[in-house]
Amino acid sequence: MRRKTWKQNEIIVALVVVLSLSLAGCAFPFSKKEENISDVETSIEAENENADYHSIIYNNKKYVYNTQITSLLYAGVDASEVLTTTNRYTIAPRADSVELVILDNYHKSIKILALSRDTITEVERYTMNGNSRGTYETQLGYAYAYGDGGKNSCTNLTEAVSNLLGEIPIHEYVVTNNGSVKQLNNMLGGITVKVPNDDLVKEYPELKKDAIVTLDESNAEAFVRWRDTSIPFTNNGRMERQQAFSSSFLQKFMEQISTDANVVWKKIESMSSCLQTSINKSQYLTLAELLNQLNYSEADYYYLEGENVQGEQHDEFYPDENALEKMIIELFYLEDGEVE
Asked: What is the pTM of this model?
């Protein structure tokens, strides 16, 4: 019998609170990474050693950061209890799902970048008293765990993702525990999905690949969160199911926002025991108005390209640096000639 465990991966909450993003943000300097220069491409880093994220040169072209973007970091952490801040660092739960929701008012689009929790990247560590021990390479999900379970954990994870993506600005964050999948599914009267794989068919015959299913209390949590930890890289199949849920959820949720944004906010408030966020109601209402002008399709959901490797203790994912640089340009930058 295969050993099966449940892990927190509620990426869909990000799609709820994305409607309440702040339009104001902070700025981070553009980071340096190891150079990867091919015959076809010129590395961002090789040509921008003294530049920041605002204006960069890539493949002999100048690009400027798209200032009409607002980015929200979402993380679902592996915790059943209420999320609380403690005086002791390094004992917070690990982030089991991470994604960046990108509201682009320039292109009138919403994009979602899913980041594997197994991504190997630079993460800052702390002592139990909260003193920094510097950065080291580990799984992205540990960035939250090394904090205080509150604002510091959220900030540490936000900075780790920003560094991974060339230190582009990330404006707000949302973190949830594992108590919200059924609530969110019920809130919209059940989410209808096209099942992308057969990962769950043995336990849930209705969740067969390519089946069209409206999820309910009996299977919504399994669809979003389940994976078999005895088999390497099963997080990949789980992320496929999360994409199916997220895309359907967001489209249905946007319909409710356009009908009555205040009613939707009350539903979000009712979930306060299972989430942490830097967003307030005023910011939410501003973005709810903007969201009515933006478009989203399944083609706007992105994954990083890279290699999955079995590490000594955990699965590890190594992003392809050239592909990552291309994606940063595509999602966050404009050619200089496009800027008015």
From this structure: 0.81
